[in-house]
UniProtKB/TrEMBL annotation:
PANTHER family for this protein: ALLANTOATE DEIMINASE-RELATED (PTHR32494)
SUPFAM superfamilies (UniProt xref): Bacterial exopeptidase dimerisation domain, UraD-Like, Zn-dependent exopeptidases
Alphabetized UniProt keyword annotations: Hydrolase, Manganese, Metal-binding, Purine metabolism
Cofactor(s) annotated in UniProt: Mn(2+)
GO biological processes: allantoin metabolic process; purine nucleobase metabolic process; urate catabolic process
Chain ranges of the Oxo-4-hydroxy-4-carboxy-5-ureidoimidazoline decarboxylase domain: 9-170
Domain Peptidase M20 dimerisation, residue spans: 404-495
Subunit structure: Homodimer.
One term of GO molecular function: hydrolase activity, acting on carbon-nitrogen (but not peptide) bonds, in linear amidines
Homology family: Belongs to the peptidase M20 family.
InterPro entries documented for this protein: Amidase_Cbmase, Bact_exopeptidase_dim_dom, OHCU_decarboxylase, OHCU_decarboxylase-1, OHCU_decarboxylase_sf, Peptidase_M20, Peptidase_M20_dimer
Protein name: N-carbamoyl-L-amino-acid hydrolase
Length: 599
């Protein structure tokens, strides 16, 4: 019989520890420490409390916990000495039925890993969905993590231990993240569509209005119909729009216009060789909410409009936020004449897709009809992952400025030019890189990056006479960003003057910061806190569709933790069905609370 939170809260300390036995391998001290937070408000509250006990533990105690875990397909498995939980997990991943070749490879990896790190390789082999990882993926992950720095790998081992504990707690409490699993499955199924040249290599790439992109739009619209949206359409720029109408605004003849509307969504295009969750998570989480509302026969006092934005990444054409920008009235007609790498203009691509270009102005939204915009997004960074937190409240989307520049010096012989007589352009950029790094570190959440450095026509025996570079500076507030810019550009001027160089600098992009609207940020905070999830507020360093909607209506975002160090724009981008379940539940809470406000 499944355990309940009520039983755990009512049990004596000794009995409660016994009820949680096996959650953290041979380490009852974790449960003992977590019980100080009773009464637990939810299973997620218990998970968070146990994780924090481990986080606060001394390093040696953390290391002892790691060493309590058995090697994968190791001696403990061969001698039937695994715990019941470990046996179940390794069995689900097929590790109890390895071929001789697979066993030999695992033993080789175990030996190399143990020699390098001094503790066993820990991997939550039941995986992000809880059903078990393929053996090939386990072996690939094992080999990849052998390259990690010891400090990072120790933290990664602990993160996997927390994931193992989460799955074990789900089993104890008879809980399955069904809504998260649904979101997971949608993302997996949508990922079968990929552009030519990438699909053949097993890589995910979906750029604006390609055949794969149009297949994604059709698939999303089909699912929207299936889960219960009242209307679904693909608009003049390729956005997929589903509306779940407000109570009292639906008749036998269709929807009655005029209901206040909450807008949400994200993009379904990807970067080249990207991940499955960037953007798409923000479409499928609210879709799962609509599925539940329709199943229950419930309506809200406002319409819920979910948009799969057609384009955000700027991969095929030199234009970004095409989907969300069209809704705010910021579609630039000049984009239509841009050509992609194959010479196909955006106008031609739209015509081939059957889109009505003349209707683009008609899809602009009237902000007066909308309550606001919310967006759920994978974090695309390491912060939540490192803190063992599933959700984060976005305080602001960073404003950014990008520059491209050149420093001109004098090319000269590397052997005959004395060090004190050189006019080295590359050294000047190197100084600039360090100056930008030092300045950005002075502020909380400011970042500065020189992502490109090129010495055109450079040679191994020539002092660089020309260096081309980029400069990207971002911060949560425009005044903070501008202060960093001023100091970094002053450093550039000083470096070039001192070295006898000249430079050119061109501003390539400027985007204003998009602070979350206080009321909508508070709504996310109330929803997250009600789940028993610790509140954590953070800025977004990346741009999102919410930036465009911010220009015309209030907005706020919710971040979901990523795996593999939070990496994004990468095939390793991932999250768990449990974290996605929490995102769905938080969105449902926000909707329910907003409904109470509106009634």
């Amino acid at each position: 019989m499944a355990l309940t939170i009520e039983q755990l809260n009512a049990a004596s300390a000794t009995d409660a520890v016994a009820l949680l036995d096996g959650t953290y391998e041979h380490s009852p001290w974790v449960a003992e420490g977590a019980l100080a937070e009773r009464p637990f408000r939810s299973l997620q509250h218990l998970k968070a409390a146990m994780a924090q006990v481990v986080t606060r533990a001394p390093a040696e105690q953390q290391l002892a916990l790691i060493r309590m875990h058995p090697e994968l397909a190791g001696k403990a498995m061969e001698s039937n000495a695994l715990t019941a939980e470990s046996t179940n997990e390794q069995s689900k991943a097929g590790l109890t039925a390895c071929t001789p070749e697979e066993l030999a490879r695992i033993r080789e990896l175990n030996a190399a890993y143990g020699q390098k790190f001094g503790f066993p390789f820990i991997l939550a082999v039941r995986g992000p969905r809880g059903t078990g990882l393929p053996k090939a993926e386990i072996l690939t992950t094992f080999a990849r993590r052998l390259n990690n720095h010891p400090d990072y790998e120790r933290a990664e081992a602990l993160r996997n231990i927390h994931r193992i504990a989460e799955i074990r707690l789900n089993d104890k409490f008879g809980v399955s993240p069904e809504l998260g699993n649904q979101v997971w499955d949608w993302q997996e199924q949508l990922a079968v569509h990929s552009d030519p040249g990438f699909a053949e290599q097993g890589q995910l790439t979906v750029t604006y209005l390609t055949q794969a992109h149009r297949a994604c739009a059709l698939q999303i619209s089909t699912w929207m119909h299936e889960v219960g949206f009242d209307s679904v359409e693909i608009d003049a720029v390729g956005n997929v729009i589903g509306r779940y109408e407000a109570e009292g605004f639906v008749t036998s003849g269709g929807a009655v216009p005029g209901a206040p509307t909450l807008l949400t969504g994200s993009h379904y295009d990807t970067v080249r060789n990207g991940g499955k969750y960037d953007g798409r998570l923000g479409i499928f989480v609210p879709m799962a909410c609509v599925k539940e509302l329709a199943r229950q026969g419930r309506r809200l006092p406002f319409a819920f409009e979910v948009v799969g934005f057609a384009e955000e990444e700027g991969q095929r054409y030199k234009a970004t936020f095409i989907g969300s920008g069209a809704l705010t009235g910021h579609f630039n007609p000049a984009w239509l004449d841009q050509a992609d790498a194959d010479g196909i203009t955006m106008r031609e691509a739209m015509q081939q897709a059957g889109l009505k270009i003349e209707d683009i102005p008609k899809i602009q939204r009237d902000p007066a009809r909308y309550l606001g915009f919310i967006e759920v997004h994978i974090e695309q960074g390491p912060v939540l992952n490192e803190l063992n937190l599933p959700l984060g409240i976005v305080t602001s989307i960073n404003g950014g400025v990008r520059y491209v520049g050149e420093i001109h010096g004098m090319a000269s012989h590397a052997g005959t030019t004395p060090m004190d007589r050189r006019r080295d352009a590359a050294c000047a950029v190197a100084e600039l890189i360090l100056a930008a790094e030092k300045r950005a570190r002075q502020d909380a959440d400011s970042v500065a990056t020189v992502g490109m450095l090129n010495v055109p026509g450079g040679s191994i025996n020539v002092v660089p006479g020309l260096a081309k570079f980029s400069l990207d500076i971002r911060a949560p507030r425009d005044d903070q960003r501008n202060a960093v810019i001023a100091d970094v550009l002053a450093a550039l001027e000083e470096i070039c003057t001192r070295r006898g160089l000249r430079y050119t600098l061109e501003e390539a992009m400027r985007a204003a910061a998009a602070p979350s609207h206080p009321d909508w940020q508070a709504r996310w905070e109330t929803a997250v806190e009600s789940l028993g999830v610790p509140l954590f507020r953070m800025p977004s360093g990346a741009g999102h569709d919410a930036m465009k909607l911010h220009e015309v209506m209030p907005q706020a975002m919710l971040f979901v933790r990523g795996l593999n160090g939070g990496i994004s724009h990468n095939p390793l981008e991932s999250t768990t069905s449990d974290d996605m379940q929490l995102a769905v539940l938080a969105t449902q809470k926000l909707l329910d609370n907003l409904a109470k406000e509106q009634r």
